[in-house]
Amino acid sequence: MRPQLVIVGAGPRGTGLLERIAANAPELYGGRGLDIHLVDPHPPGGGRIWREAQSPLLWMNSHAEDVTMFTDETVTMDGPVREGPTLHEWAGLDGGTFAGRQLQGRYLRWVYERARADLPPGVTVHHHPRRALRIDGPREGRQQVWLEGLPHPLPADLVILALGHLDAELEGEQAALAAYARDHGLVHLPPDFTADSDLSPLEPGAPVLVRGFGLAFVDLMVLLTEGRGGQYEGDTYRPSGREPVLYVGSRRGVPYHAKIGYDWTGDRPPLPRFLGPAEIERLRARPDRFAFRRDVWPLVEKELGFAHYHRLFTAHAERTAMSWADFEEKYTVAGDLAETQALVAAAVPDPADRLDLAALDHPLDGLRYASHEDFQEGLRAYIEGDLLRRHDPSHSADLGVFLGLLSVYGQLVRLGDIGPRWHGFFSYLASGPPGPRLRQMLALSRAGLLKFVGAGMTVTAEDGVFRATSPTVPGFCAEARALVEARLPEPTVGRARDRLLRALHADGAAESPDGLLRVDPGDGRILDGAGRAHPRRFALGPYTDARTPGAFTRPRTGGAAFRQNDATARAVLAFLGTEGADEIR
Predict the structure, then answer these.
(1) Which helix (H) or strand (E) holds 461?
(2) What's the Cα-to-Cα distance from 47 to each of 10, 39, 121, 193, 303, rounded to whole Å?
(3) String of DSSP letters for 462-498
(4) Is 231 helix (H, G, I), strand (E, B) or coil?
(5) Could you tell me which residue ranges the FAD-dependent urate hydroxylase HpyO/Asp monooxygenase CreE-like FAD/NAD(P)-binding domain spans (predicted)?
(6) Which residue ranges of the chain lie beneath pLDDT 70?
(7) DSSP 3-state helix, strand, coil percentages of the chain (rounded to 5)?
(8) Domain boundaries, the chain
(9) ∠378-381-383 over CA atoms, to 5°?
(10) Where are the alpha helices (DSSP H) in 316-466?
């Protein structure tokens, strides 16, 4: 019988797996036939998030030259490198363009078709435009994957879950707010992929509270302004009259930092330096469970500082007070944060050139504004300052930190579940919106259609309305009959609406302390409560404790997702080609 592989999810992760299967098959698969079944109700390549059928107003938040689905020599993996074009090379775009998501969907579809064409003879791909509901089967035997609307399951020698972002059931505060909205005729839009949200209940001219100031908010802002007929003329927004008035706040109270708007020149920092494979292995080998804040964060801080100061000393030496060799030697042996800070104070005269991660992470901490209007002016100045800095190569130490963040993320995925703090910090600093989107925020603010609430935003529901307050502006309260939670749902196993994932959890698949699906960080095999890896079930993606920044990445940055895809593809091919051959027959 021909071996059968089922991949649930045909978006960028499923496509990346297919590319790695094609790349590794000549070495690991002995020319026998193989059926690969891709299960996804959305088209292969883009999947749900990157499907071509979405608003042309929605952009990627990366430059086209910074988007690739192909490996290069910087990816640490056992499989062969198969280079391919970046998005800008494939589409013939200027590298600095922020492409629309529709175009990215077409690129991903092309990558899928190329990977499919690169498979050896006898390997056939079948797309099933349905949802997978559950997986049955013994640990040591053939699996059965049940699909929505079909009476018989797909047989599978191995199953890989590449589910991507998932919808989630509401609980706690969210469930209470939703119930209050139902009882009082209010509008409550829970965490969701913004392009899938029904925004029609948000009425023209009406105030809308928005909690969340990241990329989901940017999409919401676009769809409720340009998406309703408004237009930008330079730095001025011309309303259509159909826009609501958005009151936005979050834990930090500020938008994600803008994408850096200049190219790298000169030597890159030699990374990893203080947080590499050796440090990760020491953390994994600890007899007690490591604590992120105590054991991991100091290494992250040291690594990011090294990346920052390497760039400052090598590219802007006139702003330093000692040689890089002397600084590096002293920085390496500095034993704690206080010693490092003393060294930096002596070596870097201007405080603006020093890396202060705490201030970056919480820029509004301790700030209080006398009035709501004062805060509007203050936050507009903050955004303008961020735009200036992120587009000024004299501050290219920021780009060094960006490379450091990518390096750190590539190492931390090997630790499994490290809690949500790191992922939020990474997204805030490294995965922010294009600069033009922040300029649009400024224009909307000046037009009175976007109002800032502040940090530590809290929402209550009483007297038939939602109310939002923040300690940033004492005494201010925004009221509205609509509330939007502008963020993706938390990718927890227990709350996932995906029936397949919930069934796996009920069947004994383990979850991490933060509710993520536990997997072997080496090859993605799903773990049970005893830590045993399932020999025939794998999982990759944001709902696992080995999640990565994304399924595609910037060229020449190591591509943690690519490394994972390669390891999983090789494990699958080795099993189907050798280890599992007798069982499959």
Answers:
(1) strand 458-462
(2) 6, 10, 26, 13, 35
(3) ETTEEEEE-TTSTT--EEESEEEE-SPPP--TTTB--
(4) strand
(5) 6-165
(6) 31, 579-585
(7) 40, 15, 45
(8) 4-168+491-584, 172-256+433-468, 277-430
(9) 110
(10) 324-333, 337-347, 357-361, 372-390, 397-412, 420-430, 435-446
CB-based contact 284:456 (threshold 8 Å) = no
Q: What is the DSSP letter of 553?
A: B
Residues 6+ apart with CB under 8 A from 310: 269, 270, 324, 328, 400
The model's pLDDT over 278-329, given as tens digits with 9 standing for 90+, comes to 999 999 999 888 899 999 999 999 999 999 999 999 999 999 999 999 999 9
Cα 485 off chain centre by: 18
CA atoms within 13 A on the CB side of 157: 23
Q: What is the pTM of this model?
A: 0.94
Condensed to tens digits (0 to 9), the pLDDT of residues 344-356 reads 999 999 999 999 9
Phi and psi, residue 538, nearest 5°: -125, 160
Residue with tokens 């100061």: 309
> Is CATH 3.50.50.60 the right assignment for the domain spanning 4-168+491-584?
yes
pLDDT per residue as tens digits for the range 215-236: 999 999 999 999 999 999 999 9
Q: Which two tokens stand for residue 376?
A: 């509007």
Alpha-carbon Rg of the chain, whole angstroms?
A: 25
Sequential DSSP letters for 24-41: HHHHH--S--EEEEEE-S
Contact (Cβ atoms closer than 8 angstroms) between residue 216 and residue 223: no
DSSP-based three-state secondary structure for 143: strand
The reply to whether omega before 272 is within 30° of 0 (cis) is yes
User: Cα 154 to chain center, whole Å?
Assistant: 31
How far is CA 310 from each of CA 112, 271, 333, 360, 398, rounded to the nearest angstrom?
A: 39, 11, 16, 19, 11
Give the residue carrying structure tokens 């077409």.
Answer: 106
Token reading at 354: 């020093």
**3-state SS assignment for residue 441:** helix
**CA 451 – CA 438 distance, rounded (Å):** 14
